[in-house]
Design a protein that fits this description.
This protein has 3 domains: 96 residues, Roll (ibrinogen binding protein from staphylococcus aureus fold), CATH 2.30.310; 78 residues, no CATH class; 92 residues, no CATH class. Helix content is 38%, strand content 17%. The protein is built from 7 helices and 8 strands, in the order ααβββββαααβββαα. Strands 1-2-3-4-5 form a 5-stranded antiparallel β-sheet, covered by helices on one side. α6 runs antiparallel to α7. The protein is globular and about 80 Å long.
């Protein structure tokens, strides 16, 4: 317990807000949180807010939280991603790649030299698990922990778990702590402790984290479905156009048959990891 006069002093003393605190209070007061998203598949969380002004007008703001250790930052931008205020001002003399100052367009941190999951998976199958450090979307501490215990499980199990982890499907992820840090993984990692749902972060994960990830998975599936439909539509138009040439159309397996056109489009797509693709040859280039 503290003396009454000390308590009165503490209650009457107003804590000074940082500039970012004043900016958040001024710009986001009365706004509604509309979405939460991960930016560039990096350690950047974007909170989007909207404040309705009436007559169909509204103001949109974004609060970007960069979770990058000692380089972490909190940045408030407008709908055009122009910086309104930041917890840490990054000046040109401090960083040649980007500067985070009010009035300047927000530039995210560089992504780095990462590899795709397919490239990392091939390296793992060749016996090079250290290539996990090059995969995008996997934190440094989690990667080091996996490498320390990599020998305890078959490579096939790690490969399957890593693929599920990168898809961010909440039905296959378990919240856990490793050395006091929170992370998610498809199974309980060695020397990790599960976070019970009754605890604060467990409750937050069940009520908020899983819902947000489910929305992200649904968005990915809808985007993929839309692309497949577009590819199929273009292929149908090409086949329909070919069928309009009465004397050019042939029966399968002739190259100018409808079936061959579809197979050829699929073959070109397999070469670049897509569904249906058209190949082109550059005849003339003008610079």
């Amino acid at each position: 317990m503290a003396p009454e006069k000390d308590l009165s002093y503490l209650l009457n003393e107003k804590s000074a807000l940082l500039p970012i605190g004043h900016a958040v209070k001024a710009h986001l007061a009365g706004s509604q949180l509309t979405s939460i998203a991960q930016k560039n598949n990096d350690r950047i969380v974007q909170f989007s807010f909207e404040k309705r002004l009436g007559a169909g007008f509204s103001h949109k703001k974004h609060l970007l939280v960069e979770l990058m250790g000692r380089y972490s930052n909190c940045i408030l931008t407008d709908e055009n991603e122009v910086v309104l205020e930041a917890a840490k001002h990054i000046h040109p003399e401090d960083n040649s790649y980007r500067h985070t100052l009010p009035g300047h367009v927000y530039v995210p941190p560089p992504l780095g030299n990462f590899l795709s999951f397919q490239e990392v998976r091939q390296a793992i199958r060749r016996g090079s698990p250290e290539m996990l450090q090059k995969i995008h979307g996997l934190g440094k501490n989690l990667t080091n922990h996996i490498l320390c215990h990599y020998h305890k499980l078959p490579p096939e199990e790690w490969e399957k778990a890593l693929e599920a982890n990168l898809w961010n499907d909440p039905h296959y992820l378990q919240l856990q702590t490793i050395g006091g840090e929170l992370t998610v993984f498809p199974f309980l990692l060695p020397q990790a402790a599960a976070v019970p749902p009754r605890e604060f972060f467990g409750f937050l994960w069940e009520r908020t984290g899983k819902i947000l990830l489910e929305q992200k998975i649904t968005q990915k599936r809808n985007t993929l479905t839309k692309k497949i439909r577009q590819h199929n539509k273009r292929t149908r138009h090409k086949i329909k156009g070919m069928e309009s040439y009465e004397f050019e159309k042939r029966e399968y397996p002739h190259p100018r048959s409808p079936e061959a056109l579809k197979i050829l489009s699929q073959q070109r797509g397999v070469m670049v990891g897509k569904g249906f693709v058209e190949s082109f040859m550059l005849v003339r280039s003008i610079f």
